Amino acid sequence: MSNPAVEEASRPLLVRTIPIDDPGSLLELLPRADALAWVHGGDGIVAWGRSASFSASGNQRFQTAAAWWADLAGASVVRDEVNRPGSGLVAFGSFTFADESIDSILVVPEVIVGRKDGVSWMTTIGTGFTTLPGLAIADAATAPVDTTFSDGSVNSADWQQLVAQGVARIAAGELDKIVLARDLEANLSEPLDVRWPLARLATDYPSCWTFHIDGFFGSTPEMLVRLERGPITSRVLAGTIRRTGDDGHDLALAGSLARSSKDLEEHEYAVRSVAEALAPHCTSMNVPESPFVLHLPNVMHLATDVTGVINDDASVLTLAASLHPTAAVGGTPTSTAVRLIAELEQMDRGRYAGPVGWIGASGDGEWGIGLRAAQIENDGKVVRLFAGCGIVADSIPEDELAESNAKFIPVRDALFPRD
Question: Which runs of E-coded beta strand occur in 174-319?
Answer without folding.
Answer: 177-187, 209-213, 216-220, 223-227, 231-242, 282-286, 292-295, 299-310
